[in-house]
Design brief:
Number of domains: 1
CATH class: Mainly Beta
Largest sheet: 14 strands, antiparallel
CATH architecture: Clam
Strand content: over 45%
Order of helices and strands: EEEEEEEEHHEEEEEEH
Number of strands: 14
CATH topology: outer membrane lipoprotein receptor (LolB), chain A
Structural class: mainly beta
């Protein structure tokens, strides 16, 4: 069950930031809550929050995801993960990434500082006590910053190219297949129209370690990931959206009130 890794839901590319403004992709105060089930058993919960922060005279966005096993099932496989990324909302480029993972006997604790102007990232592995400098592109994104930038990206463009992501101090290529359109049945929202995507990659993040993974992305505004389905060696895993709260008057907020 090493599918729990860093930050929830999906994984995709590093699009050119160019003159495009991604500010509308980020909603300070947004909270999304998920339930993680294994073979139909509700094992864990996951919550992602978005906040506005001000650092070094810059208005930035902080996205923080916490995933924990329900106490009743911690003896099966204990998970206690925190991922936090600071992002420039105008470009959707990461400024700083901090990951702490505790999943059974598997642990991670690392921090990355991005310098897109000089095309470098400094990766600090706190457990190994090492610091490395990595060459990146001017538009390099990690998982979470890309996930949010995807909210205003054309699906055909997303799936027609190979993409590059920064993960754990390395650059990785990934493809994304657009399979079909389906309706995800959600607790509060009922049946929601979604595009089903299959990322294909070989790196240790976001459920991609083993087996087949499918992401259901809503066609509703905000392009929420409504469902993640994973077929792994130990069975089937579902990660389902339970509730979206915070400011706004779109479908997600209105239906949850």
């Amino acid at each position: 069950m090493k599918f729990f890794a860093s930050s929830l839901l999906c994984v995709f590319l590093s699009f050119s930031a160019g003159a495009e403004d991604f500010s509308s992709c980020f909603v300070p105060g947004e909270v999304s809550e998920y339930k993680v089930s294994w073979m139909g058993l509700p094992l864990a919960w996951s919550k992602t929050t978005t906040d506005a922060v001000h650092e070094n005279d810059r208005d930035l966005v902080r996205i923080r995801m916490v995933t924990q096993t329900y106490k009743a099932y911690s003896h099966i496989y204990k998970v206690d993960d925190i991922t936090e990324v600071i992002i420039d909302p105008a470009t959707a480029l990461p400024v700083r990434l901090d990951i702490i993972l505790n999943e059974g006997s598997r642990k991670k604790s690392n921090e990355t500082h991005f310098d897109h102007e000089n095309r470098t990232a400094v990766y600090i592995d706190r457990l190994a006590g090492t610091t490395n400098s990595i060459e990146i592109a001017a538009d390099t994104r990690e998982v979470m910053s890309f996930l949010y930038s995807m909210r205003q990206t054309d699906m055909k463009e997303l799936t027609s190219n190979m993409h590059t992501l920064y993960v754990d101090g390395k650059m990785h290529e990934m493809g994304v297949g657009l399979l079909k359109e389906k309706k995800a049945k959600l607790p509060i929202y009922g049946k929601v129209e979604c595009s089903v995507l299959e990322p294909v990659a070989e790196f240790d993040a976001l459920f991609l370690r083993e087996g087949k993974i499918f992401f259901w992305v809503s066609k509703q505004e905000r392009r929420m990931v409504t469902l993640v389905q994973a077929k792994v060696a130990v069975g089937k895993i579902n990660v389902k959206l339970q509730k979206v709260s915070g400011p706004g008057d779109d479908f997600w907020v209105k239906e949850s009130e």
